[in-house]
Amino acid sequence: MTAGRRQTVLAAMSGGVDSAVAAARAVDQGHEVVGVHLALSAKPGTLRSGARGCCTVEDAGDARRVADLLGIPFYVWDFSERFAEDVIDTFVNEYAAGRTPNPCVTCNEKIKFAALLDKAMALGFDAVSTGHYARLSFVDGVPELRRSADLDKDQSYVLASLTPDQLRHSMFPLGDSRKSEVRAEADRRGLVVAAKPDSHDICFIPNGDTQGFLESRIGANPGTLVDDRTGGVLGEHSGVHQFTVGQRKGLGIEAPAPDGRPRYVLDIEPVSATVTVGSADRLGVTEIDADGAVWPSERELVGPTECVVQVRAHGGTAPAVAESAAGRIRVRLDTELHGVAPGQTLVLYQPEQHGDLVLGSGKIAETRA
């Protein structure tokens, strides 16, 4: 989004403090702002339970009250069918296939910056504003997505799959702020959501029981847990959706390992429903392949490129060399990473300035030791 020009902005308002302050700042900047709350559940709960879930009736009411205080129009748009198909079904299908998806990445890709942004553009809006913690700037019209000033809240990872054109029509007003500053500002403005807890769970599984949710959607698909060294059967399970690479707890294996050390999930084979387990030292990978490469700044890698990589939203980074060809990214790590699962998002950052600038992203397809 071009800075310094008054634009028509659709502010996505979840009912939380971040999107509320983002909308308020867009108003302060002189833009013509309209608020919208996305109804993502066909049967929203009446009330939240602390920090569990989101998109409830309470959240819609909170968003409306903030919009009224800001003096901007407000609407509720029903995206529940699209959300069920593009986010929930994808989540279930990925787990059934033995992969580990990030539903927040999918929601940004398919809902907030696809379905919502497309509708906003069709209605004549210039940009969509959200409460994500990430910085967005433009150099000669080319977007540059960077980490938030508040590294503890940084959300550039879940935005790294956005295309340059989507970023050109996006606003992240909180990118230069810390969360504590945002809450203090909400309090000064008299916003009813100033002290509202953040949502920490998968929004469509508010009770936090991911395995139970998946079981209800997928059903039982019995298989075996096998030892990676001997091939011996160590136990049985009711479905590969119960597991992710790197998992240690809840394996259901009664006998301890011969060396007394914990066992971890090393591999998931969905066709035979075989889950391979072994010791922690077998989890390390030094090469990662990712499909569906996206280059937010329109700069695909040219030859081997030094970078730092991140493979989970709240994980650390690791130095690496990356190459790209035919929509695939191949990464060679300087040091091993552990617990890297197919289906996770791989994000490449520029190595300078503590890995600040997003270079590209893709979905992890394969790993090698």
Describe the structure.
Strand 14 (317-325) and strand 15 (328-338) form a beta hairpin. The two termini are 42 Å apart. The protein has helices at 17-28, 57-70, 80-96, 103-122, 156-159, 164-168, 179-189, 210-218, and strands spanning 8-12, 32-39, 74-78, 127-129, 134-139, 142-147, 170-171, 223-227, 233-237, 264-269, 274-278, 284-294, 305-310, 317-325, 328-338, 345-349, 358-368. Helices cover 25% and strands 30% of the residues.
Which class do the helix and strand fractions yield? alpha/beta
- The percentage helix is 10-25%
In the CATH hierarchy, what is the superfamily of the largest domain?
Answer: HUPs
Enumerate the strands of the largest sheet in spatial order, edge to edge or round the barrel: 12-15-14-13-16-17
Q: What's the end-to-end separation, in Å?
A: 42 Å
CATH architecture of the largest domain: 3-Layer(aba) Sandwich
Return the average pLDDT rounded to an integer: 92
Please state the oligomeric state of the protein chains shown: single chain
Total E-strand runs? 17
The top level CATH class name of the largest domain: Alpha Beta
Give the overall silhouette: globular
Q: Can you count the helices?
A: 8
Q: Any low-confidence stretches, pLDDT <50, length ≥5?
A: none
In total, the number of domains comes to 3
Content of β-strand? 25-35%
* Radius of gyration from the alpha-carbon trace, in angstroms: 22 Å
Order of helices and strands: EHEHEHHEEEHHEHHEEEEEEEEEE
What is the CATH topology of the largest domain?
Answer: Rossmann fold
Major beta-sheet overview = 6 strands, antiparallel, barrel
